[in-house]
Each structure stands twice: as structure tokens, then as C-alpha cells.
Amino acid sequence: MRLGLFTLLVGAFSLPQGTCGERRALQVPLKQGLEQDAFSVYDDGLFTPLGDLSALSSSQFTRLSHPAFPRHSVRAKQSQFCDGKVRAYTGYIDVEAHHLFWFFFESRRDPDADDVIFWTNGGPGGSGAVGLFSELGPCRVTSANSTEWNPWSWNEHANIFFIEQPVSVGFSYAEFGESVSTTREAADDVAALMGIFFEHFTKFKGRALHLAGESYGGRYIPVFASAIYDKNAELVQAGLTPVNLTSIMLGNGCTDFSTMFPSYYDAQCADPTFPAIQDISTCVRLKQMVPRCEQRFKKSCVDILDKVDCAAAAAFCFEVLTGHYKNPYFYDRSRSCTHEEEMEVCYPIINDINAYLSQPHIQELLGVDPAVRGNYSLTSATVAAAFDASLDWYSFPAQYHVAALLERGVRALVFVGATDFICNWIGNERMTLGLEWTQQEAYRNEPLRDWLVDGKPAGLTRSGGGLTFATISGAGHLVSSSDSVST
Ligand SMILES: *[C@@H]1O[C@H](CO)[C@@H](O)[C@H](O)[C@H]1NC(C)=O
Ligand SMILES: *[C@@H]1O[C@H](CO)[C@@H](O)[C@H](O)[C@H]1NC(C)=O
Ligand SMILES: *[C@@H]1O[C@H](CO)[C@@H](O)[C@H](O)[C@H]1NC(C)=O
Questions:
Q1: Could you say which residues form the signal peptide (predicted)?
Q2: What element of type H or E holds 292?
């Protein structure tokens, strides 16, 4: 059993043995820094915000730092590409030995007034460049040397970041063999990037920020948002402007496996929106396995966390509930791909993006660090293996983060391509119905109803208490790449 089988975009790798040892958590001396010299430096006027993004050079990086984030700095440059009609920027966030690559595009409508969106893909180990170049970005890669303009890009109405995280993904890199193996560590870097960005680019101060992600992003985003929210308390205490975290958006998220595992039965045998894909005898077997999986998962991963037993419980659940599932496609029950482990076969654009980002002239344009020039890959098997080894998939309840954010007025949108199997809508709906916050009845009392595009049903939705759940008919795991959302 390979847990990594389901990893978004990392399906084809096999786990390297013995390369994924636990690593000591980096201690973040933020509190100490804040209480002592960090803000006296700030107060002494030694920090000057850069002011406007357009002040950045297009030939070299400008380095930005901030006393509130003493371990972090940001490299940024203008990089005209992909959209052509708006300013685009690329750079790194440097966190001691960690260096995370990001792309930023201004809004096509009104960059001075529109909200800011942060996007990451999942994996673990999948690059945000998947979202950028095949789903919601300003252009789509069409070959190793060409892109086409995307009229449905999310930057039609918003300024948007795409990030390659954690380190080792895409153009992101680490020195001294450093690596990140948990969502929690990854969150520190993201919170610092957002903090430094809003402090430096003063016209964005107080602007609404939305955090969005897909697949394993359903686990990343709630934790990243919580880190930004909690960090705000320190910013306020220091007299700085808090980051205006307004919403989170989870697309085809695998946020919580205690609700997703049982849904693998439903998605094969009892989905009101999709025909059963297993015969009756298999469905009966699967149904029998649901309580056994639930019981083991609860005992070893939820009630306590015993790493050995929890890993065994999760492997058991995957094996008994998905083990015989071959076709249709894991990521899209409406596609009959036979190579369910090789995403490139169903989504050939992935090869094109890899080829495009491997071009030396594109890397030069983007300012890719010499340390990571050369052949590019959208996926990092190293990261996937490290997250597997740390049991990040099961070792924290990301859904509690969602509920805590809702409680604090941060809205949440959970959207799911209705034909995805692996992070399917039934499991996601269950996850949302189980969220506990003071407005939960306002959500739960709402019926699941159709939502319409041009008068035609486009999916199912329920909304209340700041939480919206929506399915998108005819879309699979990579929702935003489906034509049905584009319209
Ligand atoms: C892409 O364009 C660059 C620069 O024009 C050129 O050097 C390179 O050979 C082209 N690559 C392919 C695969 O066409
Ligand atoms: C945060 O953004 C929202 C939405 O744009 C806006 O209504 C609100 O005033 C902003 N809050 C702050 C403190 O700037
Ligand atoms: C990079 O990719 C090219 C084309 O796929 C291949 O021929 C070459 O061996 C690769 N280089 C490395 C260092 O992997």
C-alpha cells in the first residue's frame, strides 16, 4: 500500500526509502523578537516600506525585510509574462535557509482596489504553478514555448499570488538539505510572506485577503489562514496594520479523513448525483468495511495519535475502501483513464508546463535562482515522502481550524468538482456538516439546493453562518481547469 498513491500530481512516484526521517522543528523566535529589539528598530524609523510594487526593477531582485519578521526577507522583481496586460512580479521569500518561489499578478480590473488572493496547489509536493498555468491563472501553457491568454483568470477581479511551497517544490529550494515535512512549518513561511508583502506595499494595506487552495490545499489553507490570523495579534500589539484575512476557499480538499474515508463507499456505491460504479457484492463488502475503518482511524489517529497505529489504520482504510478501484479515474469519475497513477496521461498539459518552465530563457525572465536552474518539475516526490513520513495527512484536524476561523468571522467556501473521487463532494459535505462553531445551525438548517448558471443547474449548494458549500457539476479534481467553471 502506498499512501502517496493519492497525492495530487505526485501519483507516479514511489516512496524513496530511508530519506524521510523526522526533522527537528525550527523554533520561531517571533515573540522574543517582538518584545525585544524588533519593534524598537521599527519605532526608530529604520523600516521604510518600499511603497509601490511598480518601483521594483525588472532586471534584478529587490530585497525586502521587516523587523516584525526578523527571520524572513523577500526578493521581488517585475517579470512581464503570461498576462501581458497587467504587471506581473516574481520572487522568493527567504526564510533563513528556505527559499520559496512566488508569482504575483495584478488585477485586470482595478489593482488599487481589488482584493488579494493567495493560491497554492496540494500534493503535498504539488506546485502552485499547476493552478497558474492550467486552471485559474492569466495564461495557459500550450506548448514548451507558448502560452495563451486566459479570459477566465481569477485576476479578472483580484490581485493574485501563486506560490510554490513548501521548499523543494518547483523553483523553491533549501540550503544545507533543509526540508519541511509538516503543514505547520510551511505555514510560518506563508504567514511571513503575507505580512511582509502588506507592510511593504502600502497601497495593499488593509486590503481583503483570501487564501485558496486545492486538494491537499484543503489541509494547508486552514492552517496557513490560522497562522496569519494569530500573527495579527502580534502585529496589532506592535502598532502595525493586521492582515485583513477575509475568507478561505478550499477546492476539492481532502481536509479531514475521518469524513473522507467513509465517503469512498458513497462515491462508489451511493452518490445521488452519479451512478454506482461497483457491483452489488462489492458495494456490500465496502459498506461492511466503513465502520471498521472508522473505528480504527478514530482509535489511533483521532482519540490519540499513535504514529505507527495511525499509519496502519489509514493504510487499512485506503486498502479496503479504494483498493479494488481501478477505473474510472481517481481524479474524475467521468474520465476513463486507465493510468490512474500517472496524471500526465489524463492531463497532458502537465508535461507542457514542465517543459515551459524548464526553458532557460523563461527561468532567466522569472529570476529563478541559479541553485535550481535546469529541468523543472511541478511535483516534488521528496516533499510528498517527507509529509507521508511525518503523518501530516492525519495528525492534525484541519477542520477544527476551519471552524475556528468561521468563529472569528473569516468566511469559508468549500467547493468540489462533483465527479472527483479522491477528495469527493460527499466527504466534503460531511466535513462541513460536522463543523462546530456558534453559527453552525444557520448552515446545517439550510437545504442542499441547486445553483444556477444562465438558468441551468450548475451544482448543489448550501450556505449559512459564513460557510458556503458548493459542488460543480461535470468537474473533477482539478475543478478550475474544467470548462464548466469557466462559463
Ligand atoms: C523556445 O524559444 C527559445 C527562445 O526563442 C529557443 O531558444 C528554444 O529553442 C525554443 N524551444 C523550443 C522547444 O521550441
Ligand atoms: C477588510 O476587507 C473588507 C472587504 O473588502 C472591508 O470591508 C473591510 O473594511 C476591511 N477591513 C479593514 C480593517 O480594513
Ligand atoms: C532534462 O530534460 C531533458 C529533456 O527531457 C533531458 O534530455 C535531460 O537529460 C534532463 N536533464 C537532467 C539533468 O535531468
A1: 1-21
A2: helix 280-297
